[in-house]
Amino acid sequence: MPDAVSRPPYVPVDILTPDRDITHGHFSHGDRVVVLRGVAGVELWGDAMTVVTPSWHTPTDEDGWRLRDPNGGQRTYVTAHPRYMVHLSRRCPDCLIHLRAMEDYLLPKVTDAGGLFDCGWYSLTALNQLVHTADARDRR
Question: Which of 15, 35, 64, 131 has its CA 20 to 30 A from that of 55?
Answer without folding.
Answer: 15
